[in-house]
Design goal:
The chain is mainly alpha-helical and 471 residues long. Among the domains are: 136 residues, no CATH class; 168 residues. Helix content is 76%, strand content 0%. The protein contains 14 helices and no strands. Helix 9 runs antiparallel to helix 10. It starts with 25 loop residues before the first helix and ends with a helix. Pfam families: AI-2E_transport (PF01594). This is AI-2E family transporter.
Length: 471
């Protein structure tokens, strides 16, 4: 019988030395002066990391914005007419709807009548204003000359006591400067001629686009939305519908406000017998499309004309008329008509007009507010705030199929050619995938892959027969 050996006490047991490299002791790691296995980014405060993340995102957004603005500025001869056409289409859409629905006209005829009627109205107003300017400009120029003489007399005999020699010297210097810069003036006239050509070309493009926006606006919008990823099309379509409502509300409101401003100031100028009352009314109407700034500038022109024509008393009365009309516009008409459709703070409007005029002059000031209003509506909708819930979500954009008609036809022709070559006994490439579908087709491919070995096929068939007999 073999005696059993008792285990040694735990104190006497010796553990084998560990040869594998284990993790370092905390004391050793601390003695080396650093932490092991930690992310270096954790040493940066969380506030600095968040600021860096926001910074590079804002930089990318700023770069993208600059690129888009530069591209628009480069293509302004096309972009501006298209933008004008969009505004005109929104304005004329109720007219086309009335002619197409109530008058039973075709869509093309309704769009054509609306565009032609708008052109006739604008040309008629310009002709009337031009005749008034031609008739009244001579009298206004004579009155302006008298006003200039009065100013010169006041400068010579008033508190400034400027001598006639000094005034005449200033006049001579102005004439010499005009003569010295005659080439610059000629170049400016040539540039003005080119600008007129661009304006005419832009007007043709705007009218052309307006007609087709009224005729096929839905199809054009569906094509634009179809360029986006399929998952984003519905959101962009619903946001675009709300942006279009905002644009329509802004356009109609500005036209009504401009008409009220022009009527009030024009009637006041006519009552005070200020020259060029009708051209001043048209100028106020056009200037009112630039919020805040346009009304102030055109009102100042009316006051200056009254000052030159009838003196300071009539000018002060004209100033009171202008201020009264502008107060009616700012505190009654715009809040009542626009409502929440264009809910922009006056500070945002003023800053937008200033930024737009700085970047693109008069055109920038004209389009700044509608662009900001539409962007405000679209961005709020994409972030979950619907300003027009009454529109609903029943209107959907037509989605195009995944395929492409031209490519589909080409692929079908290639498939037919492959079938024809297979039918005439052409050699089939072995690298193609075997047919999946009918069992006869798969069997044919297996036979072809057998490389003409009847023995192997017969052996497989014999094995299948034996298996069937055993079953």
């Amino acid at each position: 019988m073999t005696p059993t050996r008792e285990p040694a006490p735990a104190a006497q047991q010796q553990t084998a030395p560990v040869t594998s490299a284990g993790p370092p002791e905390p004391a050793a790691a601390a003695g080396q002066g650093g932490t092991v296995g930690t992310d270096p980014a954790q040493a940066v405060p969380i506030s600095v990391r968040r600021a860096a993340e926001w910074s590079w995102r804002l930089i990318l957004i700023a770069v993208a914005t600059v690129v888009v603005v530069a591209l628009i500025a480069y293509l302004k001869l096309v972009v501006v007419p298209v933008a004008v056409a969009l505004l005109l289409a929104v304005l004329l859409h109720p007219v086309v709807t009335f002619l197409h629905g109530r008058a039973r006209l075709g869509k093309a005829a309704a769009a054509g009548i609306a565009v032609v009627g708008m052109v006739v109205l604008v040309v008629g107003l310009l002709v009337l204003a031009g005749r008034s300017v031609v008739v009244g400009m001579a009298d206004l120029w004579d009155q302006a000359q008298q006003g200039i003489d009065q100013v010169m007399t006041w400068l010579a005999e008033g508190p400034l006591q400027l001598s006639t020699d000094n005034l005449q010297g200033w006049i001579d210097q102005a004439q010499e400067a005009a003569s010295a810069n005659s080439s610059t003036i000629a170049a400016g006239a040539l540039h003005a001629t080119v600008t007129i050509g661009h304006v005419l070309a832009g007007a043709v493009i705007a009218l052309f686009c307006t007609f087709f926006f009224l005729l096929d606006g839905r199809s054009i919008w569906s094509w634009v939305v179809g360029l986006l990823p399929r998952g984003s099309r519905e959101h962009v379509h619903q946001a675009g519908r709300r942006g279009l409502v905002t644009l329509g509300a802004y356009t109609r409101t500005q036209i009504l406000v401009a008409a009220v401003d022009a009527t009030g100031i024009g009637v006041g100028a006519a009552i005070l017998q200020v020259p060029l009352a009708f051209p001043l009314a048209i100028l106020v109407f056009l200037g009112s499309f630039i919020p805040i700034v346009g009304a102030v500038v055109t009102g100042a022109v009316a006051v200056l004309v009254a000052l030159v024509a009838h003196g300071p008393v009539v000018a002060l009365i004209m100033l009171a008329v202008v201020l009264g009309v502008q107060q009616l516009e700012g505190h009654v008409l715009q809040p009542f008509l626009m409502g929440h459709a264009v809910s922009l703070h006056p500070v945002a409007v003023l800053l937008g007009v200033a930024a737009g005029s700085f970047m693109a002059g008069i055109l920038g000031a004209l389009f700044a507010v509608p662009v900001i209003a539409v962007l405000n509506t679209v961005i709020l909708y994409l972030h979950g705030h619907d300003k027009f819930p009454q529109l609903g979500h029943d209107d959907h954009v037509a989605l195009r199929g995944r395929g492409h008609p031209v490519l589909d036809r080409a692929i079908a022709q290639m498939a037919e050619q492959e079938v024809e070559r297979a039918a005439t006994g052409d050699q089939v490439d072995l690298g193609e995938e075997p047919a999946t579908g009918a069992e006869t087709g798969a069997a044919t491919d297996l036979d072809d892959a057998g490389g003409g070995e009847p023995g192997a096929r017969d052996g497989r068939r014999g094995g299948d027969d034996e298996a069937g007999t055993l079953r």
